[in-house]
Amino acid sequence: MKANFPLRCLSKLNESAPIQRYVDGCLNLTCEYNRTELLEAGAIVPEIKKVALDSVEQEGRFGVKIYFTKNQSYSDKLDAGAEVKVPDLVYTKVELSTPDEALHVQLKECWATPSEDPDDEGTRYDIIKDSLPANNPFESDDAIEIDRNYMEDFAAFNFKAFVWSNNLEAAIYVYCRVTICHEDVESGCPAGPSGNSTKKRDVASPDSLLVASGPIFISKSKKKSCEESNGGCSDVCEMRNDDVMCMCYERRSLAEDGETCQDAEKYELVAGEGDWSFLVYVIAAFVIVVGCLLVWSKKDGKSKDGFPSLI
């Protein structure tokens, strides 16, 4: 970014003198600012059950920072050493150091790696691609949510905590490719996929900033055993692949916590306030009676009692 300032130095004239001698000085002052900067705010190290987030933020000349927050309000920073259970949500915020309604924060791309190398292609988890939640085929649609993007002051998103398949104790480092635009400059701020921009111009900015947050460190938790408190299971506990698997007795179902069993009958559908079984019995009895009448009345078109045949 360049800013030009013309300066002029002109001596004060003596209007009462018949002649004048002075110097008319002019100076063009140009200031240049680097528009891109790499920020690193720490890393993320995962664990199967608990995730401890230790976020460190750094600021660059671009005035952008990234850090983790406690909840979806994105107002309270996450304390160092806080614990998050897999798959609890990890809330991430990218904001300007100095709020300015004319500056819009645009997240083009965000991803996570198990190392401090943002280009670690060996193991990479995409979070945001082309300004939209990444479409990862191995997870559900609600695993990633963008709460704010292409808007003034800050952008925010969340994703479900996880561990790396090839290294359960590896850290999680989150990186974002960020673009800052000013709504009053000639190019304006391009509209994002959600339309959260004041100027609807399809102009892509070539300049972007790479910011990083993490790591989340996860200490390896002690595995459960069926020998200790039945592994936390309310009914049946079995060991599968060195881990606890809870199961339920007949006509009971496993609750969302994966440990508690509850009566399955309470979830059976009923018709109104009655019972479907009663209706089934009535229909079956009617079919049997009609069948008997049809067979009974076939002889010579009349019944034994002289009544007309039904068929």
Automatic annotation (TrEMBL):
<dbReference type="InterPro" id="IPR001507">
    <property type="entry name" value="ZP_dom"/>
</dbReference>
<keyword id="KW-0812">Transmembrane</keyword>
<dbReference type="InterPro" id="IPR055355">
    <property type="entry name" value="ZP-C"/>
</dbReference>
<feature type="domain" description="ZP">
    <location>
        <begin position="1"/>
        <end position="196"/>
    </location>
</feature>
<feature type="transmembrane region" description="Helical">
    <location>
        <begin position="276"/>
        <end position="296"/>
    </location>
</feature>
<protein>
    <recommendedName>
        <fullName>ZP domain-containing protein</fullName>
    </recommendedName>
</protein>
<dbReference type="InterPro" id="IPR042235">
    <property type="entry name" value="ZP-C_dom"/>
</dbReference>
<keyword id="KW-0472">Membrane</keyword>
<keyword id="KW-1015">Disulfide bond</keyword>
<dbReference type="Pfam" id="PF00100">
    <property type="entry name" value="Zona_pellucida"/>
</dbReference>
<keyword id="KW-0732">Signal</keyword>
<keyword id="KW-1133">Transmembrane helix</keyword>
